[in-house]
Amino acid sequence: MTPLDTFNRQTVALTIAGSDSGGNAGIQADLRAFRTLGVHGCTAITALTAQNPFGVRSVLIADPTFMGEQLDAIFEVYGVGALKTGMLATAEIIEVVANRLLLQNRIPKVIDPVMIATSGAPLLADDAIDVLCQKLLPLATLLTPNLPEAERLLGKSIATPEAQRDAARELAGLFSCAVLVKGGHGTGMCAEDILFDGERLALFSSPRLEQPLSTHGTGCSLSAAITASLACGNELLQAVVEGKAYVYESIRTGVFVGEVATVLGTPQRLPMEEIRVQIL
To answer: Which of 43, 215, 227, 262 does the annotation list as catalytic?
Structure first.
């Protein structure tokens, strides 16, 4: 037999998230980002959703025991370079995921605290938020809440750029991890995200595209692209720049699919020059 070390090896990234039947968000968006950034994608599926860009119709939650078996099967064989979580749905799923990830100290973990779909449908049970905060968020390397999620985690409004910066610092203090507070729900000419890594603040800005064809799946895509970049060995600052560039170009190149549904396009390049980084 040919020794395994003579074969070419590909970097592996893992996504732990829900499946989107429309192919725009969740696992499907994550795999698209992984593929574009050149890593092999492993998946542990927390839920099946019946959805399209206009709403979530129903959700089928994975059995917690089976959820653990998916993760065990992956960690037994694959050298995961970095991982991300998305929709986790229930306290029981979060418990299983946290227990498995507790044993994976070397792997960078991007935790996207998915709570509400863009359409407004709840994606995380109310009784699961405490478990998320107690068990999973303290394991994060990077936490990536959008403004509504950051407000939910902190229990207060985040209405100004100064409040966004304070929120990044406060969340980092609560969970002992780097925090990227995403500003896509804000207003202004640029979409501005704030990163606090425990020592310094960095402002990332990209042009806000007017009347985009679709923004469904952008949060999943950002965290997945950051995860892929971390898996390739990049530092956090560079990984966030690559993630922002990926999402910007995906929105810019959005295309129609079928008669009415829209999805993010697959960028042919990462427009790094469109992302401005300022250390604050």
So the answer is: 215
Cβ burial, residue 127 (10 Å; 0-12/13-18/19+): exposed
**Residue pLDDT, tens place only, 12-70:** 999 999 999 988 899 999 999 999 999 999 999 999 999 887 888 999 999 999 999 99
Report if residue 239 sits inside a domain: yes
Helix (H), strand (E) at residue 256: strand 255-256
Whether 217 is a known active-site residue: answer yes
Known active-site residue 244: no
Phi, psi of 70, deg, nearest 5: -60, -45
Is 220 a catalytic site residue? Answer: yes
CATH of the domain at 275: 3.40.1190.20
- The verdict on residue 246 lying in a domain is yes
Select which of 43, 46, 118, 218 is catalytic. Answer: 218
- Note the pTM of the prediction, 2 decimals: 0.89
Q: Which domain holds residue 168?
A: 9-279
* Marked catalytic residue, from 182, 183, 243, 262: 182
